[in-house]
Structure formats: C-alpha cells, structure tokens
C-alpha cells in the first residue's frame, strides 16, 4: 500500500511487524478453540525467497540489489500481497507484513493467503529506465514463485501501476502468453480494475462511517483528523468530507494544517497531486504530525507509516475512535493503553482491506477476461466491507472483545477451519 511518510515523531518505538503480528496472533488465539499446532504453524511463513538482482545503471556501472518474497500461508488460496521498493526492506519485515495479509484476506473472506515482498532500494535514486530494468529482472528472478494461481503481487511503497505493468509484461514474455492475473494494481488498459487505487481509502472511510454510527453519532456532527495525505488518507478524507464529516486536519511528511471549521479536502493537494504540498496550502494553523494525532476530535486516522501511536503518546490521544489507515500504526503497548482509556481502535486488517478486496475483483476480471465498470467495483466493495464489518461487530458484541481482537477471531476461525479441513501432509 503506498503511503505518505511521517518523520517528525522523534521518539518511535522500533517494534517489528513480525513481532507485532505474532503477539496479535497469540492474543486472538486465546479467545477461540483453535488447535495449538495451527497457531504455531501460523507464526511461521511457508517460505521466504531471497534473490540477487543485478542492475546496469545508466552510467554503465553494475550494482546488485537484494529482493525478497515472503509467502506466509496459502490454505485458503494463492498468496497475495504487495511489492515495496524501500531501503529498509528486510526479510523479517516481509514475513510480518505477509502475516497481516493472511489475516486481512481472511477477515474479508477472500480466497487468498498472505504474501509480501520487495527490493532493498531507494526508488528515488533510480531513473525511470533503471526502475524498469530492475523490475523486469526481479520478475525473472522470482518467476517460479509467482503466478495467478500461486502468488499474486501488487503495488506497495515505492511501486505503482507502471511497476506492475512492467512486472506483468516481463512474466508474460517468459510464459509465452499474456498473463494479466499474475499481478494486480495494473492500469485498466492492461487488465487493471477501475477503482483499485482509491479502494484502501474508500474502505477506511466506510469503516469510519460505520463506527461513528455504531457509537451513536451522526457523521455530519463528527470531526476527523488524518495523518498522511497520500493515496489512503486523501481518498478517505475526501469521501468523508463528501458524506458530511468535518475534516479539521491533514498532514504530509513536513507537518499538518489545521482548521477547526473544516478544510476543503478537494483543494488540499494529495501526495500524488503535489508531493509534500500539504503544508503549502493556506490554513489557519500549522501543527506537527505528533500534534495532529493528539487533537480533540471524534476520529483520528493514522494513514502514513507504522508505529506512530506508541506507549509514549497513547496517553495523549484524545480522539474517541482511531481508524488505522496504514499498516501497523499502533503498537501493542499503545493498544493496551488506549483500551484502558476506552479509545476504540478499528484495526488495519479491516479498515484498509479495500485494496486487497478490489485486487480480488481485478483478479476475477483477469481470469474471466471481462472488465467491470467503476460503479460495479464501488458497489461490490461497499457490500464486502459492510459484510466484513458485520462479522467483526458480531464478535465485539457477543464476546465483549476489542475491535482488533474481534477481527483476528474472525480471521483465525476461518483459517483454522480451512486447515482442519485440509489436514497436515505427513
């Protein structure tokens, strides 16, 4: 998932995605009758592929980069998850993120498992030609590990629709036929789905809307702050604005703008429209990203990077509801503090699952060679998100669980049932 980075939080707890995912797994497993052997299997990926990727730079020099693909679990279907180009990509990070993808697909009841991968590179240091060559060679290096019925990558940090087009083309050339279903997040002209790019933000907005109603408020009377005005944050903010919510603050890497009477989200440039352009927009007040999280609002949406709500600032969160737009923005310790303070946290594996859901729609369109209209995609996503919300809400109501615990219970019951049905190969 592409997001806008937030860097002015001086003290960030460095907790790995893998550590957090395993702890969340243990916490949720305590609430259901799940075979401990299944839990132990889910703590480990099926495999992690590491490859070396030689790249001839534009100046003729050859540089070798490292790439990874973590495949966590495929009991319910092919592995599914993003490819990110970032200097901090590690095997451990890919494993943790692939675990989250497994839970996310199960919460949404999609016939996928979790995967994640990437290349250790700063994409800003690559020319367009270098990025294309790197992508095509990466596709060749992991060609035996991916496929429309095996493992289906998608865009993530540092990658986009063009990256997916290059990857699909390189894979297809080696297969001897066009295989659009090998990746999702492509342009519609080569088998992509309308509505894919804005889908994670749309799903965040839907969950905000449902949560506000669940707790007895009207969306027209609700205030929202959004940290990270990238593809997730901007689309969520604009849709909520359209539905009547008051968006009082948004931010990018340089800081936040604040207007207690509400910002016109359509005129504030998203990261795609003008990188790092939020703070150039005219607004009554400027804030830091840390101060944005601590605003007295009905809903705060962390939609930038992970680990921004920690044990160091959880006591300062004044929002009634936190809806996680990015992956892993709340540490486990912060989760406990927020729960003790009765701050409701709607987890990432539910809130931003619109991306993988529309990726599933794209995969179906590719397999059937029949493209859907944008209207159908939006309608189908609304239906899937409300269904997932209802499943998680039922667990919250019947078991008196936190939202994250309830989402994991829904996911683990579905994964556990599939593993029990399929059994363990001797």
TrEMBL record:
Site (Important for catalysis): 156
Similarity comment text for this entry: Belongs to the Glu/Leu/Phe/Val dehydrogenases family.
InterPro entries noted in UniProt: Aminoacid_DH-like_N_sf (IPR046346), Glu/Leu/Phe/Val/Trp_DH (IPR006095), Glu/Leu/Phe/Val/Trp_DH_C (IPR006096), Glu/Leu/Phe/Val/Trp_DH_dimer (IPR006097), Glu/Leu/Phe/Val_DH_AS (IPR033524), Glu_DH (IPR014362), GluDhGdhB (IPR054867), NAD(P)-bd_dom_sf (IPR036291)
Record GO terms (molecular function): glutamate dehydrogenase (NAD+) activity
Name of this chain's protein: Glutamate dehydrogenase
Keyword Transmembrane helix recorded: no
Alphabetized UniProt keyword annotations: Oxidoreductase, Plasmid
Residue intervals of the Glutamate/phenylalanine/leucine/valine/L-tryptophan dehydrogenase C-terminal domain: 193-423
GO biological process per UniProt: L-glutamate catabolic process
Subunit structure: Homohexamer.
NCBIfam families given in the database record: GluDhGdhB_Halo
Entry annotation: catalytic residues: 116 (proton donor)
Species in which this protein is naturally found: Haloterrigena turkmenica (strain ATCC 51198 / DSM 5511 / JCM 9101 / NCIMB 13204 / VKM B-1734 / 4k)
Source taxon at top rank: Archaea
